[in-house]
Amino acid sequence: MTKQRITVIRGDGIGPDIIDSALQILDKVGCDFEYDFADAGLVALENHGELLPEETLDLIAKNKVTLKGPLTTPVGEGFTSINVSLRKKFQLYANLRPVLSFKGTKARYENIDIVTVRENTEGMYSGLGQVVSEDGNEAEAKSLITRAGAERILTYAYEMAIRDGRKKVTAVHKANILKSTSGLFLKVAREVAQRYPQIESSEMIVDNCCMQLVMNPHQFDVIVTTNLFGDILSDLCAGLVGGLGMAPGANIGQDCAIFEAVHGSAPDIAGKNLANPTSVILASIQMLEYLNMGDQAEKIRYALKQVIESGDRTTRDLGGEHGTSDFTQAMLERL
């Protein structure tokens, strides 16, 4: 039997530390993957003269499954977001951002279990019509929503809800003001909802959704929305469970997927053995579920829950005094 090959992008800053932690855990649980390592971000710029080398793109396309650490896109003109480039290149139209609360964190809420399903290729992040006037006094950008793109992401959200035994899908929009783009998304949301009578459907204006998430997050199960709103709401949801260090992300396309830590590269603590690897461990769990390796995914999730709840060798952001390697060792012992 051919082994599953995984493209691994260690990333910048704390990326190598947390990715290596996740790989040790995947190996310990018996995944038996073959890893192909590739560069992207600042390390790629230094080694290859570009942020996204062709060799890296080829490996992502070849293996179809990628585990990625945080990347840094240099600030300033001339550099396109690496994450946006990858999503567009491989048509990774669905961005899945689950948040799950663990006892033992500094989260403000318990029993949170919400998935934000974000359209990943259209809307304000499509990169269309970005213009700044010659005098620098005016700037504009274009938002594009298509019926096909909206229907694809909404259908994905409902199919995921059925597959994972979830009960409710909330479509988030701003159709009261953005009557064309958000209006089309809401119209398609109502049409798709009719096909899934077994799932409770609701709709919510984005600003009200932000308030409701803070006041009563337990009313939410699956949130599905457009690109810009999804970017904001998924980070808000991460704040409910302790921050971006507790939140993974999956970018899913027709035949390709990239799983990632969604936080930044934290260069101030890079190489200091201080980073919490939970985000990328959770991303690896998403990857296993995508590969229909649910048993291994559940073992890792259970071990992670035990480590965080017990406070055994946890990192500073979780209230402990330990570093990445100690946290990883605590995970390995439980596995």
Radius of gyration, in angstroms, nearest whole number: 20 Å
CATH class call of the largest domain: Alpha Beta
Number of helices: 11
Return the CATH topology of the largest domain.
Isopropylmalate Dehydrogenase
How do the helices and strands follow one another from N- to C-terminus?
Answer: EHEHHEHEEEEHEHEHEHEEHHH
- Taken as a percent bin, the fraction of beta residues is 15-25%
CATH superfamily of the largest domain: Isopropylmalate Dehydrogenase
| Strand order within the widest beta sheet | 2-1-3-12-11-4-5-10-8-9
Assign a percent range to the helix content.
40-55%
The span between the termini is 25 Å
Summarize model confidence as the mean pLDDT: 94
In the predicted model, the low-confidence regions spanning at least 5 consecutive residues are none
Main beta-sheet annotation: 10 strands, mixed
Count of discrete domains = 2
Going by helix content, strand content and strand pairing, the class is: alpha/beta
User: Which of globular, elongated, flat, extended, rod-shaped describes the shape?
Assistant: globular
Reported CATH architecture of the largest domain: 3-Layer(aba) Sandwich
Number of strands: 12
Structure in a nutshell:
The protein is an alpha/beta fold. The protein contains eleven helices and twelve strands.
Question: Which secondary structure elements does this structure contain, and how are they paired or packed?
Answer:
Blueprint: E1 5-9, H1 15-28, E2 34-38, H2 42-48, H3 54-63, E3 65-68, H4 82-89, E4 94-100, E5 113-119, E6 123-132, E7 139-144, H5 147-163, E8 168-173, H6 181-193, E9 200-205, H7 206-215, E10 222-225, H8 227-240, E11 248-252, E12 257-261, H9 278-290, H10 294-310, H11 324-334
Parallel strand pairs: 1-2, 1-3, 3-12, 5-10, 8-9, 8-10
Antiparallel strand pairs: 4-5, 4-11, 6-7, 11-12
